[in-house]
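Support request, please re-run this one:
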Amino acid sequence: MRSDAIGLFSSLTKGQKESIGLLQIGTFLEYFDLMLYVHMAVLLNELFFPKTDPHTAALLSAFAFCSTFVLRPFGALIFGYLGDNMGRKSTVIITTLLMSLSSLVMANLPTYAQIGISAAWIITICRMIQGVASLGEIVGAEVYLTETTAKPLRYPVVAFIAVASVAGTVMALMVASAFTSFEMNWRLAFWIGSGIAAVGSIARTRLRETPEFADMKRRLHDVSLITNKKEAEKAKKLLRSTILSEHSSDTKSDYKKSAFLFFLLQCSWPICFYFSYVYCGNLLKSLGCTAQQIIHQNLAVTVVQLIVLGVVSYLSYRIHPLKILKVKTILFFGFILVMPFLLMHTSTPLHIFFIQALSVALAMDSTPAVPVFLVHLPVLKRYTYASVTYAISRAGMYIVTSFGLIYLTEWFGTWGLWVVFLPAIAGFFIALKHFEKLEFGQRYSVDVGLKAAA
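Re-run finished. Output below.
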């Protein structure tokens, strides 16, 4: 297996290897900045938000968490337009720069005790900017690498973008753990985050535009030179249909259906993330754990997530990604059926750790099959489709989950988790079946055509 992998990687050009490295490092740095506040929230929310009763505090905590994702749909439209018109390269540079600037503001922001409610509003706006920037970053990197690498290497290469984002989260947790353990100034962590994001933005200027996108823009430019308006319009329509047929046999209705089902796939991970880190974090707090202890435990959980995701990503170049996701979904369904019972019998942080570790290890996620889904979206709108579905799923599900679980668990206890998880599992499985039919059905048709021609 190792020699096969080396052979595949050796087939990449120097430019491809450089692009992969820059995008993975950039994703690592951006997610370090994004997740630094998320995992230091148990400490920082007390500095930037007013002190209230436990129920109101839980709502404020949910609001602070959701603020990171609430503007993502609008950001998706903006970055989708930029990505599909200016190019993939320009977009990932802009997102890294935005992340750097927001971290810089947070590093210098006065606390609630110093300037009152203005601190809460400013920190919320910064979190919104970070959420929007991280959206453009990860989608841009995945689209870029999908369009510049061939199967089967495409699967692990794109999957390791997700691995890089989790590695950035691990680093953020390590920094948060160190700063809380040694009582260091938390502002220094955000200064570091701002600096490394700025370096990442400069490094990405070395990227080249994807050949697929560059070719599409060149052809559109050639058509724009036609002076007759009617002829130009006819040429544009012909060009668009030609480009679509070159990159996929899917029809226009297939694209819309695929985009919707891609959205269903993306709805699952936010629920798993919120439950694993925020909901279980609140359970740890109810057991008397300190902010420092919660951060340490979340670090251990994220290391488990990183290891599992790395293994799954590596396997994806030998085992088809859709088969991997199907197995994980079945295992996760079994885990969810018994999870309320497990939670009712948890009495120590160690018990909760095992539940957290299982939930991130088996969690429903689009990795490592992202390229499978992206190639069934039209190249002319691929960035927009991917970013909008990603953004709406994150914004919607984080809001529903963070606020919904507060009331569902109050009304139904731990069994209220089923109300959120079971529909998400059903939607995820339906979407998998759709893309499995497109992927393997298309391959079957090609094989039959080749045999007939022979």
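The CA atoms of residues 3 and 363 lie 30 Å apart. The longest helix spans residues 417-453.
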